[in-house]
Write a structure and sequence with these properties.
Order of helices and strands: HEEHH
Number of strands: 2
Shape: globular
Helix content: 40-55%
Strand order of the largest sheet: 1-2
Strand content: 15-25%
Mean pLDDT: 93
Number of helices: 3
Distance between the termini: 27 Å
Length: about 55
């Protein structure tokens, strides 16, 4: 199942895989733990820093 959301708390709980997009382009495509634990792109790091505490 695919779920599109901006609710990262929800995504962190239910996702197996995260596809992070910005301006219509895929920035990261990785497992949930890798994305939330060690995002590779500066854009994902910036986004997560703003919304997750």
């Amino acid at each position: 199942m695919i779920c599109v959301t901006h609710e990262m708390g929800f995504a962190k709980k239910v996702a197996n895989r995260v596809i992070f997009m910005d301006s219509g382009s895929i920035i990261e495509d990785t497992g949930k733990d890798a994305f939330f634990g060690d995002p590779k792109s500066a854009r994902a790091k910036e986004f997560l820093a703003k919304i997750l505490h």
